[in-house]
Structures are given as structure tokens and as C-alpha cells.
Design brief:
heterotrimer, A alpha/beta (about 100), B alpha/beta (about 130), C alpha/beta (about 120), B: alpha/beta, Hypothetical Protein Ychn, Chain: A, two-stranded antiparallel ribbon, 7 strands, about 25% strand, globular, C: about 120 residues, alpha/beta, 5-stranded parallel sheet, about 35% helix
């Protein structure tokens, strides 16, 4: 059973996502919520890094946080799945444990 | 998953708890209050380990002198962790190197692990508390 | 499944408490059990019944109280972190209880998953 990691800060502003990627292994899940959703956008320079990570990790972004910030699922990089809070709950249940990169 | 071992009065759950420290001390309260969690956690006979990564490695820097900022220097408490049977202290090598620090700069003996090894250890936990 | 939730940030200043609340609502809607919500660090401020946000804003403390009443949630405020910030029994909103950090460790032991919401 893989581990779910959550990160909640914009990778354009902090290095939390970078640390999360450095200290996680292929096969894990990573959920971007709150300000971390900016990291999943095609339009930012952080997007390329995440697209690379999405090759061997499952990346999720919290849709309500995306919508609140004025972005749509169409603006999210390919390979990233948009989930709602119910999906967040499912992810937590499906993984062995959750580690927050706060 | 967690081991269950027979203790007095029935089954006792032992889980692997990891406290992950990624923030520097004094600028925010997270380091101090994480330490308080560790000290309480020690009383529960769980398998507790501590990780210091990113700016969290600064929590263990020798020579902290806090008089000038009016805060209590809580760094000596890390040296007392052994008295609480908390002996698994891990520091990420990459975080140390990025900050120009060596194990000799730290006020307590630790195990230095590369990020790859540390990520394996993190995966093996049952409960991860991040501060 | 039994979830434990740790809230480490105060209301309004940070989204953590909102996210934790939305997670709790979704988990309950899916038939999961919330073993305990533990409030630590500045998260203890979520329990302050004296908070009075503007009329058109959500009242985070009341949201937690209402959820606790509806689902019989165990919501624990850390005594040490609370005292540090002036969160005492006399200003505690309904549904919140003050207890020790041991309750957090206990939640880690008893819950199937512990989810941390912080900065």
C-alpha cells in the first residue's frame, strides 16, 4: 500500500513541493491542495517539474481549491487528476498513511 | 501495518510514529511544540522516531544563545530525549549539506541518511506528524 | 474507516481549519467515522467562542461546533497550547474539550489514518 503525501503551498513561493518530491518514491500519491494547486497549472514554470514527477507518481489536485483561485481542470497539466473533498477522503482511505508536507 | 503484541491486560497496539521537523526554531513555534509532542509520545510506548530535514536541521545546531531574543533556549531538551528512550533521530544528508552543516555541528548524536534511504523509512511508518 | 484529524492553524489566518472541516464533512458523508479532531499549535484558536466574523463570512468555530453536535464528534484542544494562547474552559465553544497531548497520540494509535492540516 503506497503512501499519500499532501502539500499545500505554492511551489512558486516555497520549496515544500521540491522537498516532497526529493523525499518520496515512485508509486506514491501526491495531493496538491490550498495554495499548492498553483503548482499543477500548465502556465507556470513549476508545471514542467510536476509533469516530470507525474511519470512515476500519481498526482492529484483538489478541484474546489483550483476553482476558488479562478482556474479550471483544463488548465491543469496532463497526467494530474482533479478530485473533490470526497476524492481526498477516498485517497486517504486507499493509502497506507498520509504525510503532510506542511 | 502496526504490530500487535500481548501486553498486560490484553492486546497493546504498537505503531510506528514519525515526527517530521522541517522548520527552523524560534522564528515560529512549530519546533518547540513538536518537541512537546515527542516528550508526551514517549510515555505511550510507541515506536517513535524523529526526522529533521530542510530548515528543521537547524533545530539541532550547537551553540544556540537565545537571551538576546527573549525566548527560552529549548535545544538542551533534544539531548534529554535518550532519557525518554527516544533514540531514533534521523537527519537528511542533503539538508545538512545544503546548509553547510556536518554532524559535528549538531548538539546530539543522529543518524544521517540520504534522501533515498529516508524516503524508505518514511514509507514504513504508520503515523506521520509533521510540524 | 476511522480518521483522526489534526488542525495546527487558527481560523481565518490560514485555510487549514477550513480544509480540515471540509475533509471531515466529506468523510462523514461517506460513512466514515471521525475518531477525534485534535487542535494544536495556533489551531487551538478554533475553539474560541468569542470569535465574531462579519455576517457574510463563515463562522468557523460554529461550523465545528455544529458538526460535533450532529455527529457526536470528539474535538480536543491541547491544554498546553491552549493555555499559552489564552484558550481556557470559560471561552470554549460547544463541543470542544480541553485535554492533553496524549489525546493526539491516542488518536494516532486508535485511528486508521491521521490527517494533518497545517501551514
Amino acid at each position: 500500500m503506497a503512501v499519500l503525501h499532501t502539500t499545500n503551498k505554492s511551489p512558486l513561493q516555497t520549496r515544500d513541493l521540491e522537498s516532497c518530491l526529493r523525499l518520496t518514491r515512485p508509486g506514491c500519491g501526491i495531493l496538491l491542495l490550498e495554495d499548492a494547486v498553483y503548482g499543477a497549472l500548465k502556465s507556470t514554470e513549476a508545471g514542467a517539474r510536476l509533469a516530470e514527477a507525474a511519470k512515476d507518481r500519481r498526482i492529484y489536485v483538489l478541484g474546489p481549491d483550483l476553482a476558488a483561485r479562478g482556474f479550471t481542470p483544463e488548465e491543469v497539466i496532463a497526467g494530474v487528476e482533479v478530485v473533490d473533498y470526497g476524492g481526498f477522503v477516498d485517497l486517504v482511505a486507499e493509502h497506507h498513511h498520509v504525510q503532510a508536507w506542511v | 501495518m502496526s504490530d500487535t503484541e500481548a501486553g498486560e491486560g490484553g492486546n497493546r497496539k504498537v505503531k510506528r510514529f514519525m515526527i517530521v521537523n522541517r522548520k527552523a526554531p524560534y522564528g515560529t513555534i512549530y519546533a518547540l511544540e513538536a518537541l512537546e509532542v515527542v516528550l508526551i509520545g514517549a510515555a505511550f510506548d510507541q515506536d517513535v522516531s524523529l526526522v529533521f530535514a530542510d530548515d528543521g536541521v537547524y533545530q539541532l545546531k550547537k551553540g544556540q544563545q537565545t537571551k538576546g531574543i527573549g525566548q527560552k533556549n529549548f535545544s538542551p531538551s533534544y539531548r534529554a530525549l535518550g532519557d525518554y528512550d527516544i533514540e531514533k533521530l534521523y537527519v537528511e544528508r542533503e539538508s545538512l549539506q545544503a546548509r553547510g552543516l556536518a554532524p559535528a555541528d549538531l548538539l546530539v548524536p543522529v543518524r544521517v541518511l540520504g534522501s533515498a534511504e529516508l524516503s524508505v523509512l518514511m514509507d514504513e511508518q504508520d503515523v506521520v506528524l509533521s510540524f | 474507516m476511522k480518521f483522526g484529524i489534526l488542525v495546527n492553524e487558527g481560523p481565518y489566518q490560514h485555510q487549514a481549519s477550513d480544509s480540515a472541516y471540509q475533509f471531515a464533512v466529506a468523510a462523514l458523508a461517506k460513512g466514515h467515522e471521525i475518531y477525534r479532531v485534535f487542535f494544536y499549535n495556533d489551531g487551538v484558536n478554533n475553539a474560541n467562542k468569542l470569535t465574531e466574523p462579519p455576517q457574510d463570512d463563515r463562522n468557523i468555530t460554529r461550523q465545528w461546533s455544529a458538526l460535533a453536535a450532529e455527529h457526536n464528534l470528539d474535538m480536543v484542544v491541547c491544554v498546553a497550547a491552549g493555555l499559552r494562547r489564552g484558550i481556557k474552559a470559560e471561552i470554549l465553544a460547544p463541543g470542544f474539550n480541553i485535554s492533553g497531548l496524549g489525546q493526539l497520540i491516542q488518536a494516532g494509535i486508535e485511528a486508521d489514518r491521521l490527517v494533518v492540516f497545517g501551514d
